[in-house]
Amino acid sequence: MATCGEAMDAAEKARGKYAALSFATIAVVVGLPLWWKTTETNRASLPYSEIANLDALLFQLTVPISVVFAKGTLLGDQERKLPFKEDQEAETPLNPKTSVTAHYQISYRRATPQEEQVLSQVSGQGTGDVALPAQEAPAGSLTIYVIPSSSLLLPQETTMYIGKQRSAVIRAPRGAVEVLAAVGAQIQQVTRVMSFSAESITGALSDRMPILQPGTEWKRPFKSSLGYEITFSLLNPDPKAHEVHWDIEGAIRRYVEPLLGKLRLVAEISVDSQILYYAALGVVPRFDAPSSSYILSAHSLPHVINPVEARLGSSAASLYPVLNFLLYIPERSHSPLYIQDKDGAAVPTNAFHSPRWGGIMVYNVEPEAANETSFPRRVDVDMARVMEVFLAQLRLLFGIQPVPLPEGTLLESFGNEGLSAWELDRLLWTRTVENVATVATTLTSLAQLLEKISNIVIQDDVASQVFHAVESAQKALQDLGTGHLESAFQASKEAIMSSERAFFDPSLLHLLYFPDDQKFAIYIPLFLPMAVPILLSLVKILREARQNKKAAKEATKTD
What we know:
The chain contains 13 helices and 17 strands. With about 550 residues, the chain is of the alpha/beta class. Helix 10 (about 420-450) packs antiparallel against helix 11. The two termini are about 30 Å apart.
């Protein structure tokens, strides 16, 4: 019986050992991998190498230029060279990671019979109007017509004519033997006017430059955005004295909408207006006794914006940058009110603008008659004069800078459009470059953040946005290099939208503040009660195994 009981005890101990080993094996082989897999942070793969390559921006901006020679401009061997092509390049290194190469693809040809018929006409004497051949040039390209020095198409004192479309006319130099070589310098002058410049591209890449050049702060336009909101505000601080009437709806329809119709290719733009009563500037003007007027000096202008901005209330609820245009009617006790520049001279427009904010114009009311006693006085605002100032400020805020023209150059009037086709192209060049640079900075920052912090979840939709942003940015760079400006700009807009969606996706913050000590606090109460018995059983098994091994050795020595 004793032998049978010992055998049963031995079998029971063996089953306990096998059970403990089975539990431990299942926990280690199945449980731990399953727990690790089900609790790991979901991190979709990202194109880190492509993002790193995108951070080194080597722009190549290609401008297709067609140079058309009218009959009689070239003679002999020079005319027999037509048609032919040549390429010109100019590189502008900005820093070790950024450079811009301007690539001009110039093709020379003779004028077609239809073009020749237009180029042989006589200019409108006294009007300055010049008829140019009708042509549909793609965005970013230029067509330059070269006419003989004796041509009557341009006034005799005019050597260059810049049209409002993507075409220009230059007069061949008088007495030049090598006309082709002499025309080359004039072609460069035209491209500096009608296409991008090194200064405009450098300004678009200012965020990648270490220091902004001093003295250029006033030129800083609004940064590239998917949309803008324009607000026209009438400030009447003294409604008891002035009953102001302004036809803002008609003015927007006549003067602003033609310009915005073209700018909406760049971004979505909305316009609204408001009237604010009892809204003062917040700065007490200085009385000037010799002129019996009140003065706002240049050093006091920065203090004007903050008190007024608190009353506007437009930027608080806006998703896009707001361009503020304020028309201020001075109080009766501070009229007339004039703005002075830094030299103490009166500003002709009686207005000023603040970079990346908007503009303010002071509109003085005609002085009242000596026997006038009825108040409030009716004031009808001359909207043509006001909109002329606001449109000039709007162009500056969008980065449409005035271009210095070479001597002897005639510029075609833009009419009611307010913006020429080549000015829109200049804006597209800068906005495309700025968009691509912004995408590169955003994706680089996001990649560095995700590599540094392993707790951040990367969902599949976030990775998809990152991949799409990289592909769109690469397509924009490729289209810039092939001279397809409009498609490059659209690709850069898609890249901006995708990169911002990925960077600001709320899922990136779900586990950002979930440190390791919190993990232990959650999982130890779950695994400890199960792990302790298994570990104690394993320890007991190891101890018995050592004892048995030791007993076996002693028995061997005894024998």
